[in-house]
Design brief:
The structure is a single chain. The protein is α/β, with parallel strands linked by helices. It has one domain (about 5-330): Alpha/Beta hydrolase fold, catalytic domain (Rossmann fold, 3-Layer(aba) Sandwich). Helices cover about 40% and strands about 15% of the residues. It has 15 helices and eight strands. It has helices spanning about 5-10, 55-60, 85-100, 115-125, 145-155, 160-165, 170-175, 180-185, 190-195, 210-215, 225-240, 245-250, 250-260, 310, 315-330; strands at about 15-20, 25-30, 35-40, 65-70, 105-110, 130-135, 270-275, 295-300. It has an eight-stranded mixed sheet with strand order 1-2-4-3-5-6-7-8, with helices on both faces. Helix 3 packs across helix 4 (about 115-125). The longest helix is centred in the N-terminal third of the chain and has 15 residues, at about 85-100. The chain is globular and about 55 Å long.
Length: about 325
């Protein structure tokens, strides 16, 4: 049991914790210990709770499901240094978790930032990967220039990833009213799309910091989470704050520099790309051309879903993952 809202304990397996890769990590597990393992990796601003609909479905399908609160999120420790959140640490956490659980290889499934991490796993730790599933997040080729410079030129200085490079301010703004922040992000597709558009008078697109300042959550018709599930997210981020999550973004340039010598293809590894029709942040078009650099790839589309796909359309996501797992990794 936790001190979080009752909906958390009702929907999640018991938490487990250990020292992993130098931090105290918490994760949740279900399904047979001797079954093929699948590790579900969340994005921003989310936690392992985002996978509450997938955990029982995958366990009932016969798989060992492992869902960490990743570094800086939920009940997992948030180290203070920005450099503690680079890709070497983020992928190292997953390797360390497998080591702790005495698992040789796993299928890694990631959404949003978790997707960026799991697509790096076969480049950095190929011997620990049985397969990869990208949810909304495609495998992206290495940027030709520093990505922060590219985002600034393309989307403007107030684009949220560029803004997140500012020391201290973003986490203070996001944390000033956690419920308002979570209600702003966790909205239906049209609302997220509208929040990402540049103002008519000009300015940055995806300027979520500015949009949040003008957002009124009272009677917002675009909420898709139940009040009790929203209360869980609010409680988790009131506990952790946003600094850890924002620090992932502060390593974009560092990760880009460190990736110069990594492989540029994924060969011989089963991969699944699940796209979301109405995602304004990670559109299906961003997955175009993945076939050119991944030798064993399937692509499927979740219709009607925005960015928060495993929560907006859990049955469709569960169906695609379980169908692919049964064909590629029979339980």
């Amino acid at each position: 049991m936790t001190d979080l809202p009752a909906a958390f304990d009702r929907q999640m397996p018991p938490s487990q914790s250990a020292q992993i890769n130098g931090i105290g990590m918490t994760w949740y597990e279900a399904g047979p210990k001797d079954a093929p393992a699948i590790v579900l990796c969340h994005g921003f601003p989310e936690t392992a709770f985002s996978w509450r609909w997938q955990i029982p479905a995958l366990a009932e399908a016969g798989y060992r499901v492992i869902v960490p609160d990743q570094r800086g999120y939920g009940l997992t420790e948030a180290p203070p240094a920005v450099t503690d959140y680079d890709m070497a640490h983020l992928t190292g956490d997953l390797v360390g978790l497998l080591d702790h659980l005495k698992i040789d290889k796993a299928v890694f499934c990631g959404h949003d930032w978790g997707g960026i991490v799991v697509w790096q796993m076969p480049l950095m730790h190929p011997d620990r990967c049985a397969g990869i599933i990208g949810l909304n997040t495609p495998f992206m080729r290495r940027y030709p220039i520093d990505p922060i410079e590219l985002f600034r030129k393309t989307f403007g200085p107030d684009m949220y990833i560029v803004w997140f490079q500012t020391p201290d301010e973003p986490e203070a703004v996001l944390g000033a009213d956690v419920e308002k922040t979570m209600r702003f992000f966790m909205r239906k597709p049209a609302a997220v799309r509208d929040a990402g558009e540049a103002p008519k008078e000009g300015g940055s697109s995806f300027a979520f910091g500015q949009a949040l300042a003008h957002y009124d959550p009272a009677n917002d018709p675009n909420q898709f989470l139940s009040d009790e599930d929203m209360a869980v997210f609010v409680a988790l981020f009131q506990r952790s704050g946003f600094r850890g999550g924002v620090n992932w973004y502060r390593n974009f340039s560092r990760n880009w520099q460190a990736s110069a010598d990594l492989p540029t293809r994924i060969d011989g590894l089963p991969c699944l790309m699940i796209m979301a029709e109405k995602d304004a942040v990670l559109s299906p078009a961003m997955a175009d051309g993945m076939e050119e650099v991944i030798s064993d790839l399937e692509k499927v589309l979740v219709t009607g879903s925005g960015h928060w796909t495993q929560q907006e359309k859990p049955e469709a996501v569960n169906g695609f993952i379980i169908d692919w797992m049964r064909r590629r990794f029979p339980a």
